[in-house]
Amino acid sequence: MTDTGPGSVGGIVARIRDRAAGRRAVSVEDMVAVLGRRSYGPFLFVPGLIGLTPLSGIPMVPAVLAVIVALFAIQIVLGRSHLWLPGILGRRSFDGASVAEAMRRIEPVAGKLDRWFYGRLPALTGRHAVRVAAVICLLLSAVVPFFEMIPFAGIAPMSAIAAFGLAILVRDGALMLSAIIITVAAVGGFMAVLI
Questions:
Q1: Which of 15, 41, 70, 120 could form a disulfide with 168 if both were Cys (CB 3.0 to 4.6 A apart)?
Q2: Phi, psi (5° rounding) for residue 25?
Q3: What domain of life does the native source organism fall in (predicted)?
């Protein structure tokens, strides 16, 4: 799969907001349709981003998001050109008003992200680097259920997943390095709490 160029975080957030606005429920498949199926970055970024909103406080939402991330990460590692989502997950829905409101809250941050990240260290966002990032996201998604034992602790691995997705989306290698640091901090922090 090859992207035509860096994507826009603001554009993705606005498209999801528009799809959710005025709808009673918005499904995962609805959001996938908004993103298209030919770009890897959004498929890691959007679930990670949702995991950073108040929606992550709803029981089982982080676990569902982690399963979605895992499915996409496996396909990225395998190099699939079009990402696939099983119907049982695609039909999973969230309250439309809550999703639209979460996206509205994120919009100012999305605009800043588009200005801050702009394709530094491009070698770190090449095909092999993207597959390594997908493996890390797969491992992170596996630990999200354990993080759920502590309220809102799932935000830590979802932050790293969102950072990897964003780095791939905007093709910013410096952000890819930051995502690795966030991963180490998240896992290290969780292990410290357990010990």
A1: 41
A2: -145, 150
A3: Bacteria
pLDDT in tens, 18-65: 888 888 888 878 777 776 655 677 778 878 888 877 776 777 778 888
Token couple for 97: 């008003």
In contact, 189 and 72? CB cutoff 8 Å: no
Taking a C-beta distance cutoff of 8 angstroms, is the pair 122, 39 a contact?
A: no
**Three-class SS state of 5:** coil
List the one residue out of 83, 82, 179 whose CA is nearest residue 129: 179
The tokens for 106 are 């994120």
* Rounded CA separation 107/17 (Å): 9
Does pLDDT of 6 surpass 60? no
* Contact (Cβ atoms closer than 8 angstroms) between residue 173 and residue 188: no
CA distance linking residue 195 with residue 185, whole number of Å: 15
Of 17, 3, 7, the C-alpha closest to 106 is 17
